Each structure stands twice: as C-alpha cells, then as structure tokens.
Amino acid sequence: MLKLTDPEKAMLDGRDGKARQKAMELLVRYAEALGAERFVDTRNVAGVPGSANPFLQRYYAGKDADGLDAIFSYFDLDSDELVEVPSALVPTYHLQGGADPRQWQTLGVPVDVFRNHQEREAFAARHDVSILKTCTPYLVGNVPAKGEHCAWMESSAVIFANAVLGARTNTEGRESTSAAMLTGKIPDWGLHRTECRFGTHRVDVETAVESVMDWGMLGYFVGDAVQEHIPVVVGDFARPEIVRLKHFGASASSSGGVEMYHIVGTTPEAESVEMALGPNRPVAQFTYGKAEQRQVYDRLNANASDPNVDYVMLGCPHAALEQLEEAALLLRGRRVSANCHLWIFTSRAVDAEARRLGYVKAINDAGGVVLTDTCSAFAQAIPPGTKVAALDSAKQAHYLPAILGVQAWFGSTRDCIHAAVSGRWSGERP
Amino acid sequence: MTVSATIVLRGRGVVGGRAEGEALVTREAIPGWGGVNPQQGVITETHHELRGQSFKDKVLVFRGAKGSSGWSAMYHTARLAGAAPRALVFNEMTTKVALGAVVMRVPSVTGLDRDPLDLIETGDWVTVDGDLGIVEIHKRK
Question: At the N or C end, where does chain A have fewer CB atoms within 10 A?
C-alpha cells in the first residue's frame, strides 16, 4: 500500500496548485502500478520537459491559447485538464533533443520544425530548467553524489549514474520526470533501495578488453545476456575510465535493459565480488571469451555488406572532450572523402571547450562537422542519400539501422575515421 | 457435456479496467523508442522476433520492457494515435513498463500464479481484468 506524507497529501489535494496536483496524481498512479510503498525526495531531475516532435505538435495544436502549456499538461502530466505550468520546484536538467541551434540546416531540419524546437526550449528555460541538451549530463556538470536520489531519463545516463557514480535512479520516463520536476518526488522502488542494487548475474571476462570499442562490445554482450538484471563483471583488465564506462553502459542498456552494473575493482559498490553480490547468489554465470566477442562483432555488423561508406557518425553517447581531441588527431593531415560525410555529436558545453582548444577547427578543416544537442538516431537526421553508415558506438549501431533503414558498420574510432577519409570500410574483425 | 477451454490466471493488477482481445505473445522484452513505430503500433527493432508485427488492439503478452527511457512516451503516443494494445500481460516489472502501462491507460496485470508465456499463444482470446488481477485465456483451438 502506498503511504503518503502530509505534504504529499496536500499536493494531491491541490493545495499547491492544479499542476502539482496533476503531477502528484500521475506519480500516485505510477507508484501504485509499481507496487511502491512510498516516495523519495529528489533534487536532481533530468528529462525532456515540454519537448515536442511534429506528431505531438500537430496533435495538441489549438488545445490552448498559446499552445505551450497543452503539451506539458496533456502529455507530460497525462492530465485530462489543461493546467498552468509552474516553474520547476527542484533542480531539473534538459537532456538531448531538438537540433543544433546553429547548424540545424546541416541536419536537414525544416525551418518550422526548428522554430518549434526553439519555442519548446524557451518554454523549458522559462520554467527554470537547465538546458544541457545532452545525453551525457554527467560530463557537463550534473554529477550526482553517491547515494543521491535522482529521477533521470536517458538509459545511458541512468546506468552511468547508478553504476559509476553510485547515485540512485531508476530509468524514468518523460511523464515521471516532468511530474518529479514539479513535485520533487519519485517512487521509492527498485534502484532507490539498497537491497535492489546488488548483482544478480556474474560475467567472467576471459579475453582482452582494452579499447573503447572492446568495452562497447562487452556491454552489448552483457545487456543481451542479463536483460534487465544486474551483472557483476569480473576479469583481468585494466581499470576502465570514463569514456570506456560510457560506451559499456550505453551498449548494455541498448541490447538489454541494464540500469545498474558492477565491475569488480572499478565501480564504487563493487570493491569485491562479495560486496557486489551482497546477499545474492548469482542466478546465472556467463563467460565472455574470444568467441563471444566475435559473435557480438558479427551481430553489430550483421546488416552491412556494402563497403562504400557514405556517412561516418561519432559521438554516441555524446563525445567527451578527449574524444574530440582524438578525432582531431586522427584527422591531422587527412581529409574527409568527397563521397563521405563525417558528423560528430557532442554537448554544447563540450563543443564550447573543444572550440576554445582548436579541436573543432581541426575537424572542420579536415571536412568534418561537430554538432550539438542531438544525434542521428534521435533527430532521424543523416546526410541526404546515405545508404551505408559507419559507427564506433554499439548503441548507435543497435538503433540507427532500425530507425532509418541504412546499413551500418561498427568498429573502432580509428576504423571510422579511416572510412571517412577513404570512403571505404576496412575495419577488421577482432 | 460442456467443453471449457478457459484457463484462469491470478496475479496483481497494475492498471485497472477490463478489456479483451486476441493475444500477441513474445518471450522477448519489448523495445520502446528506437524499436517501435508508435503511430502504426508496429515493432521495428532489427533483431526482434516480432519485427514488422502490429500490437494495435491486441492483448500484448510479453516478458518485460527494455531499451530506451523513451518507452512510456512511445506507447503514450501509440495511445494518442489509436495504435495501442487493448491490454498488457507481462512478467518482469520495471519502471519502464509500469509508467508505460499507466500512460497507455490499458488494463494491465503482472505477477501471475502461472507463467502466461507458457499458457498463452498468439491468436488466443484473452480477457484481462486489471481491477481483480485476473487473466482468462480462451484457447483458439
């Protein structure tokens, strides 16, 4: 049975206004669906409040005077009544979305769609939402502390917050994060609770896992193996740093629904196998050897056959500063083929720093483009005529062919830059 | 003599209400954003066993939800587009499927006393009572 505190009851009774009442009503329906017994307080919300794709824009057109509160009322809060939307009650961050504010035409975004994105962004900003516009909030200033209760969307950010930072969040959705923004409440269920954070499955790594590509492939294997459960990864590998962990988690939350993992000796709740498992005995054990690595590689490359690459996309999840530096170095003295495009996606904050350091200029001088706010899968934007893409992200390789019907090669960042320069894929199976 | 091919399962109601329809069953988890076309109600994920199939107006019987945090928004959109399933029956509770069921506003049941994936086949007629947490299976054959 869900128990509410007096302030929560007051919100539900409408004493803090209609919008907060509707937000609380949605959170109560959600908590009851989960079987949660209470809410936790959160002061760290990451979502996409009030954003709209053309479908939602059309669907809600004319449903209120200025068209702005309707989407938040009816869609974000799933309310049957139009409400006046107040500012965020707790710190709230806007994740990726929309289009690059300067180079939206490069993405092929129609002008009316771009204007809608701008309007929706202004709406969020007016409601005190911090406009990070990235899937990697943890790289650009929103770094929750260990044990902090958050309400985050974006599966690759959720898994990073839980596993790498030791913060506590389930994979929230559009509606629950927008409701949390107005109430500072989220159901106390799943990964908010200590007993739900221990490992359930064991994965023994018995082949070399070194590069970012290697960690992406391992993540893809692990997600497929454990689905929505919690893997404990054990092996004799060098301690992975942020970019490797970013790619590992993004992969594991794409091939499966992993929201939390332990890497023994690396992640904060896994100083030992015993600590990672807590009271659990692993329900299954998987071994990741050379054969499994090759299977993952083959699966990620399964729909590619044409070696002529039209488009190389990097920056999924959004590139860290060091990844833009790496791309700039790999492109030094070379030029992107006339038959190919190179787009690299990152956050506005990393883009600004990369411009200051000259990485963006170096990439531009070689014929590449650095874009912010979105990515090809999210914006459904690829260079016109693209039939074959090359990607260094297992997550993007998972999504892009399904979303846009293109062939996709998967390999290392080096393989991808080489493809951009030569126009041909020559990545090698590990 | 009456022949009753009805099987009754009991579990926990997730979203209330009562609906019935033809079952669409998968042992795989169901994807959200990036793996589904919400306006047509079709699964699009490359490797999924239901790729190309529509869940519109079906009773969707599945293991659980996976993938993007855009899960609820996709199925919410499917509801607006008139392409949502009529009811949900699933095994693994996650925040994705809970929120998705809530905003789809369709009767949903989980935690059943026998595995619905063993007992329900695609094409069976299934009644879902989300208030009582009961699923009735009327076998096609």
Answer: N
